[in-house]
Amino acid sequence: MDNNTVVIALGGNALGKNGAEQKEAVAKTAKVIVDLAEEGLNLVITHGNGPQVGMIQNAMDNLAMIQSEYGQTALPASVAMSQGYIGIDLQNAIKYELYSRNIDKKVSTILSQVEVDKEDEAFLNPTKPIGRFLTREEAEKKEADGIKCMEDAGRGYRIVVASPMPKKIRELQTIKTLLEAGHIVITCGGGGIPVIDDYGKLSGVSAVIDKDNASSLLAKELNADLLIILTAVEKAAINFGKENQEWLSDLTVEQAEEYIKQGQFAKGSMLPKIEAAIRFAESGEGRRTLITQLEKAAAGIAGETGTVIYK
Ligand code: ADP
Ligand code: MG
To answer: How far is residue 248's CA from residue 91's CA, in Å, rounded to a whole number?
Structure first.
């Protein structure tokens, strides 16, 4: 891929929390994406799926409770459904925006599986809560079946799963082929469907891959120069939310590592973005990550705002 390839990771605020919100949100998101496509960038779009996969998993759990013949739906199946559910709305919104501007460009959504290492230490200590809240009795029953549950912030019990590191994007060649054919590609939704390669047979695992980490790996594999993480804040900050808060514009890998040591970035929200940016910067020369708000993407690319992490 040439250096015009840019991976854009969309956060929760680009998608909304339910079907109606999603349709509205993606229409706005599509305008930003098509603005960037008009600049001549080859775009690969990734996205989160926290609320959506939660919704699907809850729905499938409830179905299994009411009609036992359907059985339990495995988490990787729900991730796959979330990729389709989000992907189709994003794809159609981008397509419509292109059409409105008379741009003849294709948009594709690629369901993607991301390999994880079955020896990943994350499996020893699952911490990511998913799905509906359970009663203590339900949680104990699941634990007896070997499914780990944890009390979640006083609100009840929930299943917890591991968040292992992404190792290999199985559909990489397909993504490259479509990019070369001029498509805007939507892929690696929700960090990808986590799978283990068992001598050529892919099996889904009950885990959630962090979408920022998966996006960083994808940007590396596509030989992109720029990874853009669009989220709810214009910049990353130190002393976030405190009186002495300072927004960060330029951030070297060394500085970023120092701030991580100081605990400046919250686990599960800003920390994975900074870590993904560091990993990308270290994967090759000249690789930068821009963290900013959806509405500020163009200004961020122009160097006017956002936090840029580089080596
Ligand atoms: P996304 O869906 O885009 O991944 P997250 O909620 O996971 O969004 O992460 C973005 C959030 O991280 C911001 O909205 C902000 O509240 C939070 N955050 C935590 N620490 C920081 C920090 N040091 N600087 C900026 N934002 C931070
Ligand atoms: Mg997040």
So the answer is: 33
| Whether residue 136 has pLDDT greater than 60 | yes
Q: Which of 80, 287, 37 has the alpha carbon at shortest distance from 190?
A: 80
Measured from CB, residues less than 6 Å from any atom of ligand 1 are 11-12, 48, 231-233, 236-237, 240, 264-266, 269-270
What DSSP element (H or E) covers 301? Answer: helix 297-301
Which of 270, 271, 275, 309 for a ligand 1 pocket mutation test, highest count of atoms within 8 Å of Cβ?
A: 270
Of the bound ligands, which one is closest to the alpha carbon of residue 228?
1
- Residue 160 three-state SS: strand
What residue ranges do the domains of the chain occupy? 5-115+175-310
Q: What is the pLDDT of residues 163-202, one digit of tens each?
A: 999 999 999 999 999 999 999 999 999 999 999 999 999 9
pLDDT band at 3 (very low <50, low <70, confident <90, very high): low
Q: CATH classification of 5-115+175-310 is 3.30.10.20, yes or no?
A: no
Active site residue 148: no
